[in-house]
Design goal:
Layout lengths: L8 H7 L29 E6 L2 E2 L3 E6 L2 E5 L1 H13 L2 E6 L5 H6 L5 E6 L3 H6 L1 E2 L8 E6 L16 E5 L3 H7 L5 E5 L2 H9 L5 E5 H10 L3 E3 L12 E4 L4 H16 L2 H14 L2
Parallel strand pairs: 1-5, 1-6, 9-10, 9-11
Antiparallel strand pairs: 2-3, 3-4, 6-13, 7-13, 8-11, 8-12
Helix pairs in contact: 2-8, 2-9
């Protein structure tokens, strides 16, 4: 899901005491940290928190008859774990709980379309930027010309993902009536059932849904964004893990692997 919009420090601090939920039985147990205060690498496990409903970044796909979380963010996470000599454990969590899970120590690392903001930099450790993407507006095919500009969205009903950068964009649209939901798939259902007029999504995510969901299109409207790309989050103060993440990212970018992963994940997301 960039998924990330501004989260106030007050909300982060208040919510960090709450236990998150996930598909893992160990969801309420703190993760062993790498770097300051722990040794996840020594334990041969790196716990990743993500919201796997954001193709081609992270999403579910049946591979060899088994439901599997895949995507180019997942490929990057696997490389980080491999460089550490650790195995990767993935926790699929609600999008708006990820930073709290990270701050509370229940996951070691978060990859899920995280954009670097001053608020997040105060709350968690942020890596170097590894990818940038444009935003897109998705509507029903019959409304493509009706919502061809950002101005045409004034007063419209817009579906966005809770806590995302797209939510921030939508809040800046005059008179827009927002429906914030936890999953992109839920927003798509709102579009299909005429409960919202449009949705703002990441470009690659929008292309994936438009490819696979009949009756939806991307309009010519171009949302303006101020974020500088996507980063990986680690627990504040875990400098050892942060340095390892940045080292792996630098290698992947230099080798052209990130672009390769994006292309492969996009193809996988569109495959039947």
């Amino acid at each position: 899901m960039n998924k990330w919009g501004k989260l106030s420090m007050g909300l982060l601090l208040a919510a960090s005491v709450l236990a998150g939920c996930g598909s893992n039985n160990n969801a309420n147990e703190p993760a062993k940290e790498t770097g300051n205060g722990g040794n996840a690498a020594a334990a041969k496990k790196l716990i990743l928190g993500t919201s796997a409903d954001f193709p081609p970044y992270e999403f579910h796909k049946v591979i060899d008859g088994k439901d599997t979380i895949v995507g180019f963010d997942i490929d990057i996470a696997k490389d980080i774990a491999a460089d550490m000599g650790a195995t990767l454990e993935i926790k699929d969590l609600p999008f708006d709980s990820l930073l709290n899970e990270l701050s509370s120590g229940r996951v070691d690392m978060v990859i899920s379309g995280l954009s670097p903001t001053p608020e997040r930099a105060e709350a968690v450790g942020l890596s170097d930027i590894y990818y940038k993407a444009e935003q897109a507006v998705v509507v029903r095919e019959a409304d493509k010309d009706k919502f061809a500009t950002m101005d045409s969205l004034k007063g419209a009903k817009i579906g966005i993902q809770t806590g995302s950068i797209q939510e921030d964009i939508a809040k800046g649209i005059e008179g827009a009536k927002l429906t914030s939901l936890g999953k992109i798939s839920e927003i798509v259902m709102q579009l299909q059932s005429n409960r919202v007029d449009a949705s703002i999504m990441e470009g690659p995510v929008a292309k994936s849904f438009v490819k696979n969901v009949k009756g939806l299109v991307i309009t010519d409207a171009k949302p303006e964004v101020t974020d500088d790309g996507y980063v990986i989050g680690v627990k504040k103060g875990n400098d050892e893990l942060l340095n390892q993440v940045n080292t792996t990212l630098a290698r992947l970018i230099k080798e052209g692997k990130v672009d390769q992963y994006v292309a492969a994940a996009s193809e996988l997301a569109e495959a039947e």
